[in-house]
Amino acid sequence: MTKIKKVLVIGAGISGLAAAKNLNDSGYDVTILEAKDRIGGRLYTDRSLGVPLEVGANWIHDNNPKTNPIMKIKEELGLKSHQCSLAGSVAYFEVLDKEGNKIEISNNDLEKIEFRIGIFAYLAKYLRPSTNLSELFTFVKKLGLLSFVKEEALFVLIQKIALEQAEDPEKISIEALFEHEGFENDEAIIGGYDQIAYYFEKELHNKIILNSPIEHINYEQDTIKVFCDNEIYEANAVIVTASLGVLKKEVIKFTPELPIEKKQSIKKLGWGTLNKVMLKFAHKFWSDTDFIVIANKESNFHAWINEEPVCKEPVIVATIAGKNAKKLENKTDEEVVLTALNELKAVYGSKVSELDSYYISKWSLEPYIYGSYSTNKAGENSQLLRKQLSTPVNSKLFFAGEATSVKVAGYLQMALQSGVREAENIKKLYPN
Description:
The protein is of the alpha/beta class. The chain has helices at 14-25, 69-77, 107-127, 133-142, 151-165, 195-204, 244-248, 260-268, 308-311, 322-329, 333-348, 382-390, 412-429; strands at 7-10, 30-33, 45-46, 53-54, 81-84, 93-96, 186-189, 208-209, 216-218, 224-228, 231-235, 237-240, 253-255, 270-272, 274-281, 291-294, 303-306, 315-321, 355-360, 373-375, 397-399. Helix 1 packs parallel to helix 6 (195-204), helix 1 packs parallel to helix 13 and helix 8 (260-268) crosses helix 12 (382-390). The longest helix has 21 residues, at 107-127. The mean pLDDT is 92.
């Protein structure tokens, strides 16, 4: 085929940066068009509270350098980190009732729950694949197979999955139970996760054009035209790494229209919202455990993250997903902070110290992103939909991003790998 003249990458998130670096290293002419005034996308470290705090991606999920390219970069840069585990041992979790009393949950009990739930999840996968997570737990409970364990243990497990999926249990597919099997522990990078983005940016800074939201991509002719404000960019191939939220809102117009399968995958794929309420206090009053779950069904939050081991300051972060995350976005910051403080005071009482400062994320309202990450939506074959989303169009339009990662989505390393995948596809079609 004709030697490629130029590749345009839409979006400077980790998938776009990884794709651009791969092509740039191979001698291709690459330009990244980024709608926002910064790189990173949903990898966003805020420092307005005087410490680096992760507004978006929080951890290196699966800290095995043999399988996770993010870990390789972390080690190459010599970055320090704090090991924790969102999906692993309950040793990383402290469970409190709504009065602040500690509830003991053993790993053995949690493993029994997961085993029994897993058996029925596998059966449902084939007999009734539309089953959602809430239905599955309710069914197994009715059979009496979970009567040996405290209700709070079930609550913790559901909260963990909801946090991973950024969605409510009744909207989560049972597929979510199988995606993370075999993963190692997680790590939080000290000094800011955005150091990973700048690892790519240092070689690409003169190829990134910020504040350039894309309005229209016309791929009718051999040369693709990309319209951005009053500028028109031309290329032989375009890698679209815009978030699934942007694609769902049809922010970018395509001519000709995208194939039906592509549009169906965009419409049907689950898209979750996970927000964080970051609170910096005068001094720390909570335990040293990484995650704190308040086992209260009336709680507005899924789990509290102890950020003190990472940022070395008294910061605790409330996480909130699904419909409650959307409700939060309609409230004032003062109302949200008051809700969080009231829940902490109910548990810790007079131990709660003076609030120094706060930061609240509102991802579904974030321009050019509109959400957090793709989810396993109940009633849909997510792997098939992701495969359709990842398929190139006419050997011209290539799609990358965490939502195009077929087996496991939502994680930063999956976004990175998807960018490399499409860069390699382009190199095969257009050898340099």
